[in-house]
Amino acid sequence: MEFDWQPVWLTLKLATATTFVLLFVGTPIAWWLSQTRCRLKYVVGAVVAMPLVLPPTVLGFYLLVFLGPNGPGGQLTHALGIGTLPFTFTGLVVASVLYSLPFVVQPLQNAFEALGSRSLEVAATLRASPLDRFFHVVVPLARPGFLTAMVLGFAHTVGEFGVVLMIGGNIPGETKVLSVAIYDHVETLQYEQAHLLSAGMIGFAFVVLLLLYLLNGRLHRSEL
Known about the structure:
224 residues, mainly alpha, globular
């Protein structure tokens, strides 16, 4: 039996790209949610958390409609010369970012809220700019939150199925990620391949969560 590594590398590529985008997009959202007193905070928080309760096929379906050739998103990307995003790797990244957003925003928001205002007030008295205060005070103190957000965002992207199947389909080398490959093997009664990939994902999930708990425990002990 020849093992097909293509879905593995594609999944790792997707998870890495998604994690970087999530940190870039999710950090300012989490910071705003942790600091603002605006009533819209609860609306934004609910929108961010919706993928936690929505079936992934629902999100994938509406993304497919929105980004398709007749949808507003698809018409915009076509006008920009990008083409349509469904059934492309870029489309997978967009879908993965939206579906995994709460797994990055919520740990960061919790970490930012736990910091309090004392350290920022001290930095402000030393004439540190808002950006200096964020990057030199908030980010180092919120390291456990960033670590949790990165690990959960990466691991959740690896385990996605419904949303990536809806928006990406099953194109080898382009959109056929691990979860879709497992489904494909089961459909074609290739249980040995399905067992191999499934066992690998179980092992990956266990190792990722174990490392997360160990690293967070070490960080908390070092802060005491």
